[in-house]
Amino acid sequence: MRIEALIFDVDGTLADTEEAHRQAFNAAFEHHRLGWHWSSAQYARLLATAGGKERLRAYVDSLPVWPTERRLLTARIPEIHQAKTAIYARLIEQGAAPLREGIERLIEAAERAGVRLAIASTTTLANIEALLRAALGDRAIRRFTVVGAGDEVLRKKPAPDIYQFVLRELRLPAARCVALEDSLLGLEAAKAAGLFTVVTPTRWTKGENFAAADWTLPSFASCERPLEELQTRFTAVETCP
Ligand code: XBP
Ligand code: MG
Question: Which ligand number lies closest to the CA of residue 129?
Fold first, then answer.
């Protein structure tokens, strides 16, 4: 069966963005005089929670503070996250996270072959637009038939909801599509939605268990004909699941 659509995760898959997210979170904490600072090691642990607002909530819940203080901090999460998103957009506009190697070649191959492109991400639409604009130009987001961004669904990854939303909008069955992810959270979401899933880990996720993936590779950098290789593997799994 021919692949009809590629559904891309954003952070870690289209581009290695989490260091920019971490810097944006820390700059927002400074702006709001919170006295917080997320080190790389701490942020790697916090990435176990998908979604920046949910990650902030998990962090506040872990703080040794009185219930009143926790309630006050929790109430401030939306404004902290809003500040973080604005700072992140500036970092991305300054070129903080170029597309990962091989991604543009895969996108162009899909377009030449009439394979539709879609996005299923936990991050905000604003972040996705900033990343695509910086990497592929002003009209880049229009190359994606469907853009499923974080708050489009209630339950974030590893729940399958964002992938199910994108499949509904594409009007395609999971069996005709491929998900591209970088993390175990994303892999679990895509597999729960019934998708053939490719994983290209980053330094933030390389130690995770990707046994459930249909194809795991360091990146598409060395794939000269990525769509053909994807189609071969997709067909092989389809014939011997
Ligand atoms: C990765 C995420 C996002 C980012 C932070 O999203 O979990 O939450 O870490 O972005 P993806 P926000 O599904 O694309 O890998 O602060 O906008 O959530
Ligand atoms: Mg990701």
Answer: 1
What pLDDT digit, counting tens, does each position of 55-71 carry? 999 999 999 999 999 99
Q: Which residues does the annotation mark as catalytic? A: 9, 11
Q: Is 127 in the pocket of ligand 1 (CB under 6 A)?
A: yes
State which CATH number among 1.20.1250.20, 2.60.40.10, 1.10.150.240, 3.20.20.140 fits the domain covering 18-93.
1.10.150.240
For ligand 2, the distance from its centroid to the CA atom of residue 65, given in whole angstroms, is 31
pLDDT tens digits along 103-131:
999 999 999 999 999 999 999 999 999 99
Partner residues linked to 118 by β-bridges: 7, 146
Query: Please, are residues 122 and 5 in contact by the beta-carbon 8 Å criterion?
Result: no
Helix axes 184-192, 161-170, angle to 10 degrees: 50
pTM, two decimal places: 0.96
Whether the CB of 22 sits within 6 Å of ligand 1: no
